[in-house]
């Protein structure tokens, strides 16, 4: 099976991305029956982020995070969309000519973004068509994504279906979305869904001091040190429960219920457990960020491998369209 997913380079990866997306995708990629295509959707990111310096920094940070979390770039396909832009945008153009205007105009994500953002550009509008091209360019079977991407996958199948009706059923492979309803929503420091856009995220790759500053900002109620506390409703305890081991969780629960244990203590414990549980990832992340040429090399190798696949698909499609013999 070919498994494919794209990640925008809109910021550094946070604890929510790691527990909700990166780790589950790496688990899937470990199955020897699967080939995983993992790419950084930097062309998509351009719809909202124009500063090339920041875009590149984010791209490296995301690539470093995936490698640090154990993604095997040698066995799989690991690349930047922009480095294969010719193939991605060529297929996108073909699909554009099969895309009914209302399909895009009524897209949830487009409607939502066009209400919120000041810059409503054509890239934002045709975003789902580029995504459909990203997927079908590699004949992907399975696309693991979050719930918010369900409609983009439906559009991909609709576009692929329309294309195949014109040029033959064996032209494009129609992918299935894999939406894991069971994946929990990781709460942010304010208890709402952890997200870059809400600025409530924990960047576990920060240095120890800055990480502590973020952990200290986790929102709690105003109970005094001596008061008993409710573990079920507290954000520090919720976050701690996601990373600590069973005994540690039970110990903290008992401390909360007994009183005489303050939120400051709990925050120090959360900080310590984040550092301990992500020790290897933090070290590897730091290594790659300090060895960018090595990261570049891995990406370039991935891009050369991915190009071999993209070339074959595009040439098959062009023949079907009668552009080539
Ligand atoms: P953000 O909301 O910070 O912009 P993205 O939309 O870039 O995050 O999400 C990238 C991936 O990480 C998606 O697959 C998404 O489902 C997952 N993810 C993001 N935030 C969380 C969270 N708080 N809990 C679980 N998964 C998350
Ligand atoms: N739109 C996806 C997101 O915002 C990113 C993405 C781009 C993607 N191309 C893709 C995801 C192809 C899966 C497959 O999360």
Describe what this molecule looks like in 3D.
The chain has helices spanning 15-29, 42-45, 52-68, 85-96, 101-105, 108-116, 122-136, 150-167, 208-216, 235-243, 246-258, 263-277, 279-290, 292-320; strands at residues 2-7, 35-40, 77-80, 142-144, 176-178. The protein has 325 residues and is mostly helical. The protein has two domains: 2-185 and 292-320, HUPs (Rossmann fold, 3-Layer(aba) Sandwich); 208-281, Orthogonal Bundle (Tyrosyl-Transfer RNA Synthetase), CATH 1.10.240.10. It has a three-stranded parallel sheet with strand order 1-2-3. α1 links the parallel β1 (2-7) and β2 (35-40). The chain is elongated and about 80 Å long. Tryptophan is lined by residues 4-6, 8, 41, 44, 131, 134-135, 143, 145, 149, 152.
Give the overall shape, derived from the CA principal axes: elongated
Mean pLDDT: 96
Low-confidence stretches: none
The amount of helix comes to 55-70%
Supply the CATH class of the largest domain.
Alpha Beta
- What distance lies between the first and last C-alpha atoms, to the nearest angstrom? 29 Å
CATH architecture of the largest domain: 3-Layer(aba) Sandwich
By DSSP (H or I, 4+ residues per run), the number of helices equals: 14
| Alpha-carbon Rg, integer | 22 Å
The largest pleated sheet is described as:
3 strands, parallel
Query: How many strand elements?
Result: 5
Topology as H/E string? EHEHHEHHHHEHEHHHHHH
Number of domains: 2
CATH superfamily name of the largest domain?
HUPs
Bound molecules: adenosine-5'-diphosphate, tryptophan
Give the strand line-up of the largest sheet: 1-2-3
């Amino acid at each position: 099976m070919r498994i494919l997913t794209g990640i925008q380079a809109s910021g550094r990866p946070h604890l929510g991305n790691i527990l909700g997306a990166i780790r589950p995708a790496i688990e899937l990629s470990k199955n020897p029956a699967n080939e995983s295509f993992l790419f950084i959707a930097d062309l998509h990111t351009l719809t909202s982020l124009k500063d090339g310096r920041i875009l590149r920094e984010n791209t490296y940070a995301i690539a470093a995070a995936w490698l640090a979390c154990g993604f095997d770039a040698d066995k799989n396909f690991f690349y930047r969309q922009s480095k294969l832009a010719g193939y991605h945008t060529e297929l996108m153009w073909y699909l554009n000519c099969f895309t009914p205007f209302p399909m895009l105009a009524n897209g949830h994500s487009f409607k939502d973004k066009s209400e919120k953002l000041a810059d409503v550009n054509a890239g934002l509008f045709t975003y789902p068509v580029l995504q459909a091209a990203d997927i079908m360019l590699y004949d992907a079977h399975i696309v693991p994504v979050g719930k918010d991407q369900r409609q983009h996958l439906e559009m991909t199948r609709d576009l692929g279906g329309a294309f195949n009706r014109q040029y033959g059923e064996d032209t494009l492979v129609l992918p299935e979305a894999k939406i894991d309803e069971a994946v929990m929503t990781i709460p942010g420091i304010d208890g709402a869904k952890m997200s870059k856009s809400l600025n409530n995220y924990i960047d576990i790759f920060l240095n120890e001091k800055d990480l502590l500053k973020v952990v200290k900002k986790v929102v709690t109620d105003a109970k005094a040190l001596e008061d008993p506390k409710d573990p079920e409703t507290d954000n520090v305890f919720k976050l701690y429960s996601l990373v600590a081991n069973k005994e540690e969780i039970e110990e903290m629960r008992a401390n909360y219920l007994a009183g005489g244990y303050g939120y400051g203590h709990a925050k120090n414990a959360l900080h310590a457990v984040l550092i301990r549980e992500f020790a290897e990832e933090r070290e590897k992340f730091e290594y790659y960020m300090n060895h960018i040429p090595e990261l570049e090399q891995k990406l370039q190798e991935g891009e050369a491998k991915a190009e071999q696949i993209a070339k074959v698909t595009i040439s098959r499609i062009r023949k079907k369209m009668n552009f080539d013999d």
